[in-house]
User: What shape does this take?
Amino acid sequence: MNTSVKSVIALGLICVLAAGLAGCEKNVINEKTGVPENNVVVKEGLADDANVSSAVMAALQREEQLKPFNFHIETRKGDVTLVGEVNTAEQRMLAEQITLATAGAHTVQNKISVKNN
Assistant: This one.
C-alpha cells in the first residue's frame, strides 16, 4: 500500500472514533424546564425503561435538596412515575423538573407527596 492510501485510512479511522466519542456525552438545556441535561445519557431512541429509571434516580440523588429522600421510580416507554415524600412543594417540583430534564424521560407523573409539618 502506498503512503497516501495509508493516510486516507488513518484519517477515516480518526473521523469514526471522533464521531463515536461525540455521541457519548450530551450537555443540553431541556426546553421544557430550563434545567441542563447533565445526567446519564443513553443514545436517543435506544434507551430502555431501566436505563431511564436509573438515570432519573442518579440525577435526583445528585441534587443536595433531594438526597435525604427515597423515591420509587417506574418508567414505561419513557413515561416516568415518581413516588415518594418530601418536606416542601419546592422539593416536589424540583424532582419533577430534574426528571423531565433526564434523557429518555418523555412525561412525568408526579405522585410525590409533601409532608405535613
